[in-house]
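Chapter review: from sequence to fold.
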Amino acid sequence: MARKGHRPSQAAPSRPRFYGRHAVTAALANPERHVRKIWGTREALAAFDLPSSIPVTFADVADLARLVPNDAPHQGLVAEVDPLEDVWLGDLLLQGKDDQRPLLVLDQVTDPHNVGAILRSAAAFDALGIVTQDRHAPPESGALARAASGTLETVPWVRVVNLARALDEIAEAGFWRIGLSGHATQTLGQAIGDARVALVLGAEGEGMRQNTEAHCDELARLPISPKVESLNVSNAAAVALYAIAARG
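The token string follows.
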């Protein structure tokens, strides 16, 4: 998936280390991803036909464990990679102008496991991509790539400086912006309609910021049981994406 543009206001990001079969295999399969180096057990590396341009180091399980966070399930594979180049929001909106694929907008969702799980759901339900605020979203990392189970390489991820301005641009592209909120009076099913939908989700606990809510066309809630106060944001995203996919 091509990712164009750079973030001139920021220093160059450090190189993340991906671990686990899905994350490493997907990184190797992505022509836009530059894999700098791979460490692995002989057994795990035997499954790959690696190009000679990638330095490979054979290592045992204990050595690999020192390359990743504590207790990270590396499955015998670790890869050092360059972060993907940025995607411009305008390019993504133009790419999806002739279809009904939903867009996901995340307001200060900072947990890499949640963002990774949301990427996986976005891929499962064929979302156009996700949009986050650059300073309030996690960087690419091994934990995020593992939670995404390979979909970090396939789902476009737009990082913007100003989320409110991005929501204005999304509206101009013809999307109906629905913010998920527990205090909304209508359910998501009542709010969806037939328009192209941009789902806006806030951080677990705090929810969307007030200014983000103000840039939504409607607020809606998931019809969950009163036995549960709320859903994890990644679970909420999956349920909402299913509702959009099933509306037809």
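Two observations follow directly from the output. Residues 89-245 form a domain with the Alpha/beta knot fold (CATH 3.40.1280.10). The chain has ten helices and ten strands.
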